[in-house]
Each structure stands twice: as C-alpha cells, then as structure tokens.
Design goal:
By secondary structure, the protein is of the alpha/beta class. The protein contains 14 helices and 25 strands. Helix 1 (about 10-20) packs parallel to helix 6 (about 200-205) and helix 4 crosses helix 14.
C-alpha cells in the first residue's frame, strides 16, 4: 500500500495529523495503529478510565524498570494501545500548562515554540462547551468542557487553598506570565456525557474520507530507508508481513515509548546501544530514547467525616443511583475526570514559578496506580514536581519488535527533585489542616502522622510513588548533538522522516501533557503542509 504520508500511531498526535492532512482531498494518508478500534464502553464513559489503566487489550502492559528509583518496584506504566492511544484511557484533564514552559523551549533554540507562538494551536484544536473568548475557541475538533459537579469537599479544598494564600483562578487555562500560587477547577476533554478522545474528536470524522486508510492491529517493525530518505515502514498484521510506502514523508507518532523504540529497531540511535541488541546502525543519533522525562506522583491522603465523599457514592444503592443519574441526565460521578480541581504552588524558594502540581479528589484510594477507591470516606491529593531534573531512557531490549523496551524514568535521581517532592507533601499536609478542610479531617492516613523527617518522607515516596502517565522528551527537539529532531520536527540527518508526538518536548510541560501533545500535532500538521507546498512550488 502507498500514500503521500504514512503515520505510525493513532494516539493523540496521530489522530490530529490524520484529520488535518486529509482535509485536502488530494492528500492520501495511511495511519497505522498497533491496537484495535475504540469500541469498549468504558473508554467513552469518563470515569471508566479507572477500569482501563491496566486493561490487557487496551494498553501495552508496560512496566517501568526495577532500577527506576522506586526500591526495586516494577510499577505498571500504562500507555494506550487502541485508536486514540492514551487519550482513550487517560483521566480527561485538559490543562495547557504554564506559558513559561513554552518560552523555555524557545530559549533552548527551538524557533516557533514560544508561548505566544503555540497559543493559536491550542485554540485551533478546541471546541469549548462555553462561549468563545480570547482563551477558548468553539470551532475546533476537540471537545472541552468545565467539570459539571462541585462537591462540597472540593469546594472546601478551594476555600482552604485561598486560606493558604493561593489565588483562585476561574480558568486554569488562562494563566498570565509570572503567576504565583493558584488553585481552580480543571477542565475536561469531554463532549456532552462522553469522553472526547483524539479518536472521537479528530479521527472519526476523518475516517469518512476516501483519502484516509486506517490500519489497526498492526505492529510496526521498522522504518524503511533508501539511503537517508525514509520511504515507508514495515509492519505485521495477523502474523503477515506488510509494507506501507510514503511518497512524501513518514511520521512517527507512537509516543514517548513507541517512537524511540521504532527508531532504534530501524537502526537509528546510539551505535553502542544498537550493537548490544544486534541492530545494524543505519544512522547514528545518540539522543534517541534519552532525556526521557515523566512526572512522579505521590499521594497524601486522609479520612474525613461530616461531608460526602466519592467512597460512599461508589458502592451499593448509591452507585446504582449514580448510574441512573448518568443514564438520565449525563451527570454525576461517572462524568468525573481524574481530579476536579488542581493547585499549582511554589515549595522551593529558588523556583521562579510554581513547582508542584497538586490535584485533589474527594475520595481516598487503595494503594497502587489502579485508582481503586478505598472503603473509607476520605480525601486525596496527588502531587508531582512540575519540572523534574532527573532524566531517564527508553531502550529496545532486543532486535525483536515484539519485545517490550526498557523504560526507566530514573525518578528522584536529582537532589532538587527529592527536595521538591518532600516539600510538596509537607505543603499538602498544611493544606489539609487549613480551617476549611480541617473541620472535616479525621486523620491523615498517607503518609501518616508518624512520617515527619525528610528521610521518612523520601522513603515513603520511593515505596509508594508512581507515574502520572506523562511520558515525554525521549526524542527531544533541539540543535545540539543529543537532540533528535529540529524545530520543524524533522529527524536530524535524515530526509522524509519526522517525529510528531510528546517525545519531541525538550522538557516536560509543568502540568498534564495531553493538551500540549495535541497542540504539537496541530503545529506539526501545518509544518508538513508547508513543506508539501514548498516542494510543489520548487
């Protein structure tokens, strides 16, 4: 099979590209996805994500390496393996991040990626549920919406935040430069009662077009080259080897795990690593799979009384009532994202802007990353360091494309990361004891009142912390020898090959990464179209 563009991966970025490129009826696109169709009902019910994070068919089943800094634990590392990718299994939080993040990208030499320059692509993507304004647009593909409910315990958390001196922001996607500590209600990738994954928002409308071919349940083995020119990809379906050829460009949108893995299997990467796994070097590019970053999540949790929590609403007749409410009105707890509100606060004196993100849930959870609710009523804050300095890697373990790569975020390797996560937990402890929340507080259960010293907080973090599912930066954009792509997302030293997904981030954005990934793809589509027009004009 052959098309103008071959896109690997139908996740957040790949779905955007498939839609935007095929808006031109003369442009042919093949989109290849390792997973299947997004038919599972839990994908489309917002709160269904709690049942999907370790689903054996809808995720890759990855685990982070036992040497990732978590006392030898191999934590689950969920990534979506389905149309929509991780946007089909994530917690639906839509936050664009601090403008300083993108200004930093530009300061690193990436022209065109400052906050002012990327902002139009956020608006271009968005179909906001409310009226259009300077921040939100209403004519894009991606449905976004405010949360529908504001439970009393969450309202108390907002009041407690203001008691701490945090500014209340009515719109967490309207953040000026230099903003200090703040708190507000999160927005969701939701259209009506259903999840707005990239597959629903971007891909489904495009699949009606005759110039788009979507290939599912297909594992890409490698990029095919003619010298330094990428000309297609080799993949298998049902055990049968196939090829897809690109007359213009091959685009890798397989995410921060899949993209470096495919490059390495194609002989593009660090020669020493490729020699170890028996892959001939096609193009030496030592940064492939390096600079890997993720946000590291630690929970502070407490039991509550005198106020309703999700723990009671998720069992027995109350759960039946919630199901009926969702069926009748499209409301209730089944529409909830991973959190209903978020605070961004500065915990280290040397930080110029907030350095910890603290999500809040009117619920307590059982241990582990699966989001299973506890039996006792409670409240939880999940915190992460916004700008980790620790760097890890993604590496193919062998030349076999069926073997999962090694994933090592290298959590808490840097001293500043350790200081931040400790100070963040202490800050949340203060938050829970602010008057508006203290009236409901029974007892802190995690890490617990016995944890007081820095060493005790750090030991708790290493033993219980987990990923926030923000895998990024493993094929970073830049001009130095360890960069993988340039500011137009072209792979250095090769032709006809781009990376357009979260792996190109030079540094991880401060908050949730799905909205920035969609922005990257919107901008990437424009870059591809501009290159095509330039070739035609030449």
């Amino acid at each position: 099979m052959q098309a103008d563009y071959v896109i690997v991966g139908a996740g957040s970025a790949g779905c955007v590209l498939a839609n935007r490129l095929t808006e031109d009826p003369a442009t042919r696109v093949i989109l290849i996805e390792a997973g299947g169709r997004d038919w599972h009902p839990f994908i489309h019910i917002p709160a269904g994500y709690m049942k999907l994070l370790q689903h054996p068919k809808l995720t890759w089943g990855y685990k982070a390496d036992k040497n990732a800094g978590l006392n030898g634990r191999e934590i689950p590392y969920p990534r979506g393996k389905v149309l929509g990718g991780s946007s089909s299994i994530n917690g639906l939080i839509y936050i664009r991040s601090q403008p300083e993040d993108y200004d930093h990208w530009a300061q690193l030499g990436n022209r065109g990626w400052s906050s002012e320059e990327v902002f139009p692509y956020f608006r271009k993507s968005e179909r906001w549920e409310g009226p259009a304004d300077a921040v939100h647009a209403t004519d894009g593909p991606l449905h976004t919406a405010p949360g529908r409910d504001q439970p009393e315990l969450c309202k108390a958390a907002v009041r407690a935040g203001t008691e701490m001196g945090w500014e209340y922001r009515p719109d967490l996607n309207d953040l000026p430069h230099g903003l200090g500590d703040h708190i507000g209600w999160v927005q969701q990738t939701r259209g009506g009662r259903f999840r707005a994954s990239a597959a629903r928002s971007y891909l489904r409308p495009a699949m009606r077009r005759p110039n788009l071919k979507v290939v599912t349940n297909a594992l890409v083995h490698k990029v095919i080259f003619n010298g330094t020119q990428a000309v297609g990809v080799a993949f298998s379906r049902g055990g049968v080897a196939e090829e897809a050829r690109a007359t213009r460009e091959v685009v890798l949108s397989a995410g921060a795990i899949g993209t470096p893995h495919v490059l390495q299997l194609s002989g593009v990467g660090d020669p020493a690593h490729l020699a170890r796994i028996g892959v001939p070097v096609h193009h030496a590019l030592p940064g492939v799979g390096r600079n890997f970053q993720d946000h590291f999540l630690v929970r502070v949790q407490a039991t509550v009384q005198g106020v309703a929590s999700l723990n009671e609403r998720s069992r027995g007749l109350r759960l039946v009532g919630e199901v009926l409410k969702y069926a009748a009105t499209g409301g209730g707890m089944l529409t909830y994202a991973a959190s209903l509100l978020a605070a961004s606060v500065k915990v280290l004196p040397e930080s110029a802007t907030p350095d910890v993100q603290a999500l809040f849930a009117s619920a307590s959870y059982a241990p582990g990353p699966t989001r299973k609710l506890d039996t006792r009523p409670g409240m939880t804050s999940g915190i992460w360091q916004m700008r980790p300095e620790s760097r890890g890697y993604v590496e193919a373990r062998s030349a076999n494309p069926h073997d999962q790569p090694a994933i090592n975020p290298n959590y808490l390797a840097e001293e500043r990361d350790r200081r931040t996560i400790i100070a963040g937990m202490r800050k949340v402890r203060e938050w829970f004891n602010a008057p508006a929340l203290k009236q409901y507080l029974v007892a802190e259960t995690l890490p617990g009142p016995d944890v007081q010293t820095d060493d005790e907080f750090l030991a708790y973090a290493r033993q219980t912390g987990t990923t926030v599912f923000h895998a990024t930066c493993s094929c970073r954009m830049g001009q130095d020898p360890m960069a993988v792509v340039d500011s137009e997302l072209r792979v250095h030293g090769l032709q006809g090959l781009r990376v357009i997904d979260a792996s190109v981030m030079p540094t991880v954005t401060s908050t949730n990464t799905n909205a920035p990934t969609i922005m990257i793809a919107e901008k990437g589509a424009v870059l591809l179209q501009a290159a095509a027009y330039a070739r035609q004009a030449a």
